[in-house]
Automatic annotation (TrEMBL):
GO terms for molecular function: actin filament binding; integrin binding. The keyword Protease does not apply. The keyword Lipoprotein does not apply. It comes from Haliaeetus albicilla (White-tailed sea-eagle). GO terms for biological process: actin cytoskeleton organization; cell-cell adhesion. Keywords: Cytoplasm. It holds the Pfam family Talin_IBS2B. This is TLN2 protein. Transmembrane segments: none annotated. The gene is Tln2_0. InterPro entries: Alpha-catenin/vinculin-like_sf, Talin_IBS2B. GO terms for cellular component: cytoplasm; focal adhesion; plasma membrane. It is found in: Cytoplasm.
Length: 244
C-alpha cells in the first residue's frame, strides 16, 4: 500500500520537475504555480515515506534511516532546483544559469529514482544493504560536487573543527571494513548511514575551515585538494564493500 502511494506521488513530483524546468522560460505566474505544486507534492511524498518507514517497526531503525535519508535527498534536490529555476527565469537558452538548471533537474530525477529503488529494496531483505550502500555512494558523489564548486561557504570554522570531523571518517572506515568482512545486511546498512554523515560532515568542516580568514590561498587549495582525495579514497572503500 505504502509502496504504491510512494510510487504514485513520486511520479507526480517528476511531472512537477518538468513543469519547473519549462516554467523558467514562461511567465512568472506559471513558474509560481509549478513551485507551489512541487512544494505540495514533496510534502505528500515525505508523509507517505514516513508512514512506510514507520511500518517497518522499531526493530529495524537503520533501514528506517535509509528511507528517511532518501526523502531528505529528494527534498534538498527540489530546493536546489527551485533556486536554479528562479536564477534561470527569463534568461536566454545559452545563459550559464540554464546549464545550472539542467544540472539541478538531472540531480532531482536521479534522487527520485534512488528513492524508488530504495523503497523497492526495503521489501527484499537480501538487497537492503546493497541498495543502502549504492544510495550513500551517490549521495557522497553529489556532496563532493558541491564541495568542489566555487561557491563560498556561508560561514567559516576553525582548522581544529576540521581536524575533529576527520575522526568520524576513521570510525566509519573501521565500520566499513568490519561490514566487508561480515557481509551481514544490518552491518552494511549501518555502514551506509554512518558513512553518509561522516563524509558530509568532513566536507562541510573542511570547506569552512579552508575559507577561514587566517588561511591563505595556497593552504586553502591544499585543504580542498586533500578533502577531495579523502572523499575519493573513501568512495573507493565503499565500492569495494559493495563488490564484496
Amino acid at each position: 500500500c505504502y509502496r504504491e502511494n510512494i510510487l504514485k506521488t513520486a511520479k507526480a513530483l517528476v511531472e512537477d520537475t518538468k513543469l519547473l524546468v519549462s516554467g523558467a522560460a514562461s511567465s512568472q505566474d506559471k513558474l509560481a504555480q509549478a513551485a507551489q505544486s512541487s512544494a505540495n507534492t514533496i510534502t505528500q511524498l515525505a508523509e507517505v515515506v514516513k508512514l512506510g518507514a514507520a511500518s517497518l517497526g522499531s526493530d529495524d531503525p537503520e533501514t528506517q534511516v535509509v528511507l528517511i535519508n532518501a526523502i531528505k535527498d529528494v527534498a534538498k534536490a527540489l530546493s536546489d532546483l527551485i533556486g536554479a529555476t528562479k536564477g534561470a527565469a527569463s534568461k536566454p537558452a545559452d545563459d550559464p544559469s540554464m546549464y545550472q538548471l539542467k544540472g539541478a533537474a538531472k540531480v532531482m530525477v536521479t534522487n527520485v529514482t534512488s528513492l524508488l529503488k530504495t523503497v523497492k529494496a526495503v521489501e527484499d531483505e537480501a538487497t537492503r544493504g546493497t541498495r543502502a550502500l549504492e544510495a550513500t555512494i551517490e549521495y557522497i558523489k553529489q556532496e563532493l560536487t558541491v564541495f568542489q564548486s566555487s561557491e563560498v561557504p556561508e560561514k567559516t570554522s576553525s582548522p581544529e573543527e576540521s581536524i575533529r570531523m576527520t575522526k568520524g571518517i576513521t570510525m566509519a572506515t573501521a565500520k566499513a571494513v568490519a561490514a566487508g568482512n561480515s557481509c551481514r545486511q544490518e552491518d552494511v546498512i549501518a555502514t551506509a548511514n554512518l558513512s553518509r554523515k561522516a563524509v558530509a560532515d568532513m566536507l562541510t568542516a573542511c570547506k569552512q575551515a579552508s575559507y577561514h580568514p587566517d588561511v591563505n590561498e595556497e593552504v586553502r587549495e591544499r585543504a580542498l585538494r586533500f578533502g577531495t582525495e579523502c572523499t575519493l579514497g573513501y568512495l573507493e572503500l565503499l565500492e569495494h564493500v559493495l563488490l564484496v
